[in-house]
Structure formats: C-alpha cells, structure tokens
Amino acid sequence: MTLQSKTAEIQEKARRHLSPVMTRVTEMVVERAKGARFWTSDGEEYIDFVSGVAVNAIGHAHEAMVEAIQKQAEAFIHFGLNYGYYETAANLAEKLAEITPGSLDTVFFSNSGGEAIDGALKLAKAVTGRPGIIAFEGSFHGRTMGATAITASSSKYRKFYEPILGEVYHAPYPYPGQLRGVKEGEITEYCLGQIQKIFDLRIDPSRVAAIIIEPVMGEGGYFPAPPEFIQELRRLCDSHGILLVFDEVQTGFGRTGKMFAAEHSGVTPDILVLAKALSGGMPLGAIVAARELHEKWPAGGHGSTFGGNPISCAAALANIKILQEENLIERSSKLGERIVTRLRSSLKGLDAVNEVRGIGLMIGIEFESSIAASAVPHIKQKALENKLLIMNCGVYGQTIRLMLPLNIEEEVLEKGLSILEKAIKETLSKEE
Ligand SMILES: Cc1ncc(COP(=O)(O)O)c(C=O)c1O
C-alpha cells in the first residue's frame, strides 16, 4: 500500500464513520508527533503552533511522560477512585495543593475541562444553596450542558440546546476590544457597574452561587482581564458570600508565564478549574478548592467512573515535574515577550493588524474586523501549505492565536515564526 492510498483509506473511513458535528480544521492524517513537530501518514513534516489546543505544554511525546505512562500502564490501567486510593492520584492531589494559590488543597478529578466546569457549578450550588451563576460575554467553558449554558462566545454553541440551565447571567468581560481607546481603570469600573446592574435588575446577590471567569479570555480572543478587575471581583464575591471560580483550563500550567494566571492579580479563587495542560494530553480535569468547601459538598452528590485515571495522573505528575525542573514557566514569560516584540516589529506598518498582544506564551495577533473573515482563513491556509499548523480565536474569528509548547526548540520556533510572518504579509498584500 502506498503512503497516499493509506492516507486516503483512513480519510475515507473517518469521513464515513466519525460524526461531522465536530469542526475539523484540516483533513490531515497524523501518524507521529514529537516536541513541536508532527508527521502525517503521507510522510510530510509540520510545525505545530497549536499543541492540541494548549494541551501539550511540554511538547508531544516527552520521554519522561511516555515513561511515566508506560510504568503506570504496566502496574494497572483503571481501578476507580470510588473503590479505593492509589499513589498517582494521591500524589497528584498533593502536588496540586502545593502549586495552586492560597489554601486550595483538595481536588476532585474529572476527565475533561467541560466536565470539571459542570462539577464546579454543582459544587458552588450545593455549598451555597443558591441557584444563580454569573459568567462573562465572550467566555468559552466547554460543551457539556452546564458549561454550554455559561459559555457566551458564540450562539452556535447554544443553538438547539435551549433552555439549558436556568439562572445564568452574563456580564461584559473587561476587554479593550469592546471599548477601544478607553483606559483600563474605566473598563474595570464599567464592567463592575454592569454586574451591579444584574444584581439590581435581575437577581439579588444573595441568590448568586458563583461568578465564573477566565482570568485571561481564551477562545473569546486572548484578552487578559485587568488585575484590578479580578481583585474587585474578589471583593464583590466576599461581600455577598458568592464563590469566585477561575476557569484556568486553558491558562493553567505556565501558559501565561506564571504557573496559574491567578498569580498575575494575586487573587485566590474559591474554586480553580483545571484541565488541558494539566496532564499534557491524557484526559484529566480537576476541581481544586479548600478542604472546608469540599467537605460541605454532600458525599455521593458527584462522582466519576474514569475521573483521576491512574495513567492520566501519572502523566500529570511527570508533566508538572518537567515544567518545574526545566524552568519552563520562566521560559514561557521570557519567550512570550520576545515573540511579541518580534511580531510587533515584523508586522509593523500593516494597517490590517490591529494588535499583537501576549501574556507568556498565550499570544494573539488580532486583525481588523472588516477583513478578518477573509484574511484569517487565508493566512491559516497559507501557513498550512508551508507546513505550519496555526489556529484562530475571537468571537468573530479575528485573532490568530499561538499556543506553542513551552519547551519549543529555538530552531523550530524560528522556522515557524518566519512561515507565519510570510503568510500574514502575503495575505494582507492581496487584501489591501
Ligand atoms: C477556558 C476553557 N474552559 C473549558 C474548556 C473545555 O475543556 P474540554 O474541551 O476539555 O471539555 C476549554 C476548551 O477549549 C477552555 O478553553
């Protein structure tokens, strides 16, 4: 069988039997991946600036992670945390207690980000006895029903599923795109005022269980919330007995140049939701909160068959060890600054580039909305033709986001950035 016919056979099977509901960005057939590169079944090599959507923080198939997975698979693959304890889950819970902010010391493990978000909403409702949830416009929290209900980055995610979950209210996220030219302090004041308006007109704060926020908005466009806004949110929650929940599914584990984005504002949430880079690719999510809060969650009120799978926990432990031992959090911060400086300079003078912004290795290149719908897909296609995989975000798809592995090799980075810059310049020269 030739490489081409093997590829065609896999594609045909996949097209016939995999549900088309999922957006598929390319039809490549991936065979192998290592570091920041992957190879397709027809033998082509690509650079990966997507990292499984911010999952592979230490790159694909890091030796130490592969070894940890193999070792645990040989010992046992599944047992069920409801039938006993095991070392990898206990060690990981202890490790998360150590590295997460403040006194967050107790963990419930799930299988994914969305599932952990649903669990966090259940925890908040059960513990406070209140029904209301406040989330933010532009936010993405996942595809399970609870997560879909609080997501507001596109109506397509909610269409046909309404009514989803009652008592969810959305406030504007404090991002400058909405109020361009307005000072950060004014944005904070405006957005806090909008929450107060929800309290005055829609739901009394004594009926709100939780306010949930991505400290840096991910899918909605790569916008960091001003630290001052997060600090004010903490005060607001404290004054009304509302639980503050951080969705750090995308921002956790060094992506923003700190272990957790919470550290940028110095605010500890009541509940921290983690997934994606937690385990570098093995399915795992976590709901981290103080022991006191978890103890108020009625026993048996939540659970999971696979949550805290021993192999996923082993992978997560290896992942965190590598992030720490190889100083990758610091690298994320420094490398991020370097890349933003380079892109600001190389893309200078292109009117259609609105902004290059970044916090650690969460980097966004935002395009003028009038041309984004045609330019962004073209840039992605051009990059792919030159063997670079990139992805976009933003509620109108206007931002190219870079999610490089934190340990990307200099040579691969250089090559990938050059392909990206060329794709942007070529596309914009046609658009203008
Ligand atoms: C901020 C955020 N929360 C939650 C999720 C959902 O995670 P999962 O796809 O693992 O359910 C995502 C996924 O992109 C995310 O970016």
UniProtKB/TrEMBL annotation:
Pfam family, one: Aminotran_3
Keyword terms of this UniProt record: Aminotransferase, Pyridoxal phosphate, Transferase
Enzyme Commission numbers on file: 2.6.1.19
GO MF, one example: 4-aminobutyrate:2-oxoglutarate transaminase activity
Cofactors that this protein relies on: pyridoxal 5'-phosphate
CDD domains registered for this protein in UniProt: OAT_like
Stretches assigned to coiled coil: none
Keyword Hydrolase (UniProt): no
InterPro entries in the cross-refs: Aminotrans_3, Aminotrans_3_PPA_site, Class-III_PLP-dep_AT, PyrdxlP-dep_Trfase, PyrdxlP-dep_Trfase_major, PyrdxlP-dep_Trfase_small
Family indicated by similarity: Belongs to the class-III pyridoxal-phosphate-dependent aminotransferase family.
Listed name of the protein: 4-aminobutyrate aminotransferase
Organism of origin: Peribacillus deserti
